[in-house]
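Side project, low priority. Logging it here so it doesn't get lost.
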Amino acid sequence: MIEIKKIKVRDIVEYKNKPREVVKASFSKIGRQGAVLRTKLKDLTTGTVNSYTFRDSDKLEKIQLEKEKAQYLYEQGEDFYFMNLRDYEQFFLKKETLGNLTDFLIPDCKVDILYHKSQPINISLPIKMNFEVTESPPAEKGNTVDGGSKKVKIQTGLMVDAPLFIKTGDIIRIKTTDGSYVERMG
């Protein structure tokens, strides 16, 4: 068990018998009322984010999730299929569980599978990944009102803001945490 004042963003805690990631944490102490921790916790099994408030006397259990390397295979309906690279066991996770991580899944890409009590519950992607640009409108000279960027479509179908010089067929690096452009790869 851990005191609430030691909880930080990105910690994994167990609350109401489910593993949850701390997305936001705001600790405050108001006079004689005692300390309060206002949090947003992401349920790692369903992907939902809810707000919770904890008092100074509350304690949470900080947990460690097991990670194993896996390979993304394919999508079928709302199910995304993966293969554990250690024992070649295949399994699937629902689209609602993965959330916006599905915007960055391309066949054969390597991911970390997060396990809780020997059950796969979610994935963890590399912070930056490379994608091919499949659609890019032509850059118009002098069109810099919006900061010199345009919307391009990457191979997963996600639309990304990129500089005007990016063309169809270019390989670009994208940050998977927020979907932002990082650099052109060549």
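Brief comment: The helical segments are 95-98.
Revisit when time allows.
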